[in-house]
Amino acid sequence: MPLNIPDTARKRVVVIGAGFAGLKLVRALRKSDLQIVLIDRNNFHQFQPLFYQVATAGLEPSAISFPLRKIFQKQNNLHIRLTDVVHINADEKLVQTTLGDVHYDYLVVATGANTNFFGMKPIADASLPMKTVGEALNLRNSILKNYEAALTSDDPTEIESLLNTVIVGGGPTGVELAGALAEMRTYVLPKDYPELNFRKMKIYLVEASATLLSSMSASSSSKAAAFLEKLGVNILTGIQVTGYENDKVLLHNGEHLKAHTLIWAAGIKGEAPEGLAGVYTGRGNRILVDMYNRIKGLDSVLRSGT
Ligand SMILES: Cc1cc2nc3c(=O)[nH]c(=O)nc-3n(C[C@H](O)[C@H](O)[C@H](O)COP(=O)(O)OP(=O)(O)OC[C@H]3O[C@@H](n4cnc5c(N)ncnc54)[C@H](O)[C@@H]3O)c2cc1C
Q1: Is residue 58 domain-shared with residue 186, that is, in the same domain?
Q2: Does the Cβ of 129 fall within 6 Å of ligand 1?
Q3: What are the beta bridge partners of residue 187?
Q4: Is 22 close to ligand 1, i.e. is its CB under 6 Å away?
Q5: What CA–CA distance (Å, rounded) separates 243 from 265?
Q6: 191 in the same domain as 242
């Protein structure tokens, strides 16, 4: 089944992914003599740095989602297709999607990253990741649903568990989210739910390494920790989360935290379509590239983005 891309004498470049990388590249090629095919499973670009605002009800999803057809209204050498890439056949220079196939002269894989649960199924099943607008919205709905349930519970232990949130991963996402939730607890929730005692709500930020923001400078790390502590976030460093059962977040030291909301911000893995995954990827499913960002072993396929 074809994707109905017109045949022309122009060289065709297929770009998979309309994140920052794909978007910027397609824009930069607007005056080129190439035929460009941009494929994404969504017909909008998602501004990921503000997911936490959607998750904490500070912004609506429409404020951080930008329709691709509007962005590229004036770009004549572009064909946008809304579909999922399921396989790349590099020998035949063919991209296979759920809607049909398309041949390329050059392929750019700008598929970004996805959540890595490191094989821990109970955590994958119970926790809420935040890698798409949909997941951020799901997180918001889930937290609010727990507060609604707390209103009608008469069990104090259960109420605390319904109010509590455990965030796993003290990188930028976890730190941002913990801060936003703490501000929400102080300024918003007591007004929206005057019948609930939010002084009992605990926000835990659990990080396996010794510091928050371990990939940043020591000063950023300590300032972030001091700021979050001032906001009343419970920071647990050097602690690994090993599982989740019966509303308990299990820790490697045998202890547990009781919380209905478990947010996983502790790892990412490369989003490599079939045909590349396992063959042209390394640690964490990251696609391996040379110094020109060409996928190692494939001349006409480039990696763009994370
Ligand atoms: C919560 C959060 C906060 C962040 N905050 C910051 C920040 O403050 N500053 C900063 O610099 N960075 C931040 N980042 C990181 C930044 O958003 C990413 O580095 C950036 O989005 C990567 O861009 P990309 O184009 O490589 O991939 P993405 O933006 O992930 O785009 C990939 C695109 O490919 C599409 N796609 C993937 N697979 C397929 C497939 N098989 N078929 C079809 N389409 C597919 C996806 O739908 C998506 O549109 C944050 C990330 C998150 C999750």
Answers
A1: no
A2: no
A3: none
A4: yes
A5: 15
A6: yes
**Does 1 reside within a domain?**
no
- The answer, yes or no, to whether any atom of ligand 1 lies below 6 A from the CB of 41, is yes
Residue 76: CATH number of its domain:
3.50.50.60
Instruction: Report the run of H or E that residue 109 belongs to, with start and end.
Output: strand 106-109
Q: How many domains does the chain have?
A: 2
Q: Which residues are identified as catalytic?
A: 176
Q: b/e for 269-285, b at 16 or more Cβ within 10 A?
A: bbbbbebbbeebbeeeb
Residues 6+ apart with CB under 8 A from 68: 18, 38, 40, 43, 44, 45, 80
On whether residue 227 sits in a domain, the answer given is yes
Distance CA 171, CA 212 (A): 6
Q: State the helix-helix crossing angle for 156-163 and 133-151, rounded to 10 degrees.
A: 160
What is the distance in A from the centroid of ligand 1 to the CA of 17? 9
Q: What is the pLDDT of residues 112-151, one digit of tens each?
A: 999 999 999 999 999 999 999 999 999 999 999 999 999 9
Q: What is the pLDDT of residues 82-111, one digit of tens each?
A: 999 999 999 999 999 999 999 999 999 999
Q: What is the DSSP secondary-structure string of 221-289?
A: HHHHHHHHHHTT-EEEES--EEEEETTEEEETTS-EEE-SEEEE-S-EEE---BTTTTTSB-GGGPBPB
In a domain, 7, yes or no: no
Q: Rounded to an integer, what distance in angstroms lies between the CA atom of residue 234 and that of residue 225?
A: 10
Ligand 1 centre to CA of 133 (Å) is 11
